[in-house]
Write a structure and sequence with these properties.
Protein name: 6-phosphogluconolactonase
Catalytic activity: 6-phospho-D-glucono-1,5-lactone + H2O = 6-phospho-D-gluconate + H(+)
Distance between the termini: 26 Å
Pathway: Carbohydrate degradation; pentose phosphate pathway; D-ribulose 5-phosphate from D-glucose 6-phosphate (oxidative stage): step 2/3
Radius of gyration: 16 Å
EC number: 3.1.1.31
Oligomer: single chain
Pfam families: Glucosamine_iso
Number of helices: 6
Number of strands: 9
Bound molecules: 6-phosphogluconic acid
Strand order of the largest sheet: 1-9-8-5-2-3
Number of domains: 1
């Protein structure tokens, strides 16, 4: 696990534009080195702003979109197309506007999927998808970039303080009774987050100052889950000024 580096930006707009530019170079570098690249998306306002900034950036054409795998760090367990799903936001902001290979876009299951409204079966299904894409002996791919929003309560993905998913050692867990609606969710667990080469924590606004502080301090992830978000090669906290004061 790597120690975090903080990069502070004037405001959310500059943060989103810079993260989008960083995504371009990181994906292009990965495709050059390994033939393809993989990213893990997050929901939330900042994560979606990054995707919109990427869609608007001329440099996006440097990415070979057909050789990119797209995964999600967590999902609200709702029907396909529900505006509250992270998948829906990501498609609207970016994926509908670039020539991704639909077979390489891996949304977490929805309640109208093959497992119906059973979040445990849906979590197991996503874990099987990840295992199929992972190298020999691994349960999840070595994601090139995994982005995470952070909540005022210091949650990342759908790993909320004090909840059982924090200590689940399966790659993917279901979450019931989440403190933030909707209550039922699916999330990557810490071992999966930490398989990523680069973890980027995105935080904007004064309500994120305390979680950013806790995340950088590296305290107990069961109280401040953001403190457990670390990449194998790099951990970046991409924040704006308000989130550092
Ligand atoms: O599933 C959710 O409820 C959200 O996706 C949530 O996890 C979000 O990512 C963070 O709360 C950061 O949100 P902002 O970027 O909007 O501050």
């Amino acid at each position: 696990m790597t120690s975090p580096t903080v990069l502070t930006h004037r405001d959310q707009e500059v943060l989103a534009a810079t993260a989008a530019a960083r995504l371009v170079t990181t994906i292009v570098d990965a495709q050059s080195a390994r033939g393809s690249a993989s990213v893990v998306l997050t929901g939330g306002g900042v994560g979606t702003a990054v995707l919109a900034a990427l869609a608007a950036a001329p440099a996006r054409d440097a990415i070979d979109w057909a050789r990119l795998d797209v995964w999600w760090g967590d999902e609200r367990f709702l029907p396909t197309g529900d505006p509250e799903r992270n998948e829906t936001g990501a498609r609207e902001a970016l994926l509908d506007h670039v020539p991704v290979d639909p077979a390489r876009v891996h949304p977490m299951p929805a309640t109208d999927g093959p497992d119906g409204d059973d979040p445990d079966a849906a979590a197991d299904r996503y874990a099987a998808d990840l295992r199929a894409a992972a190298g020999p002996g691994a349960s999840v791919p070595r994601f090139d970039v995994l982005m995470l929003g952070v909540g005022p309560d210091a949650h990342v993905a759908s790993l909320f303080p004090g909840m059982p998913a924090l200590t689940d050692d399966r790659p993917v867990a279901s979450v019931r009774d989440a403190p933030k609606p909707p209550p039922t969710r699916i999330t990557l667990t810490f071992p999966s987050l930490r398989a990523a080469r680069e973890v980027w924590v995105l935080a904007s606004g004064a309500s994120k100052a305390e979680p950013v502080r806790l995340g950088l301090a590296g305290g107990d992830p069961s109280r401040a889950p953001v403190a457990g978000a670390r990449g194998t090669e790099r951990t970046l906290f991409l924040v704006d000024l308000a989130a550092t004061t």
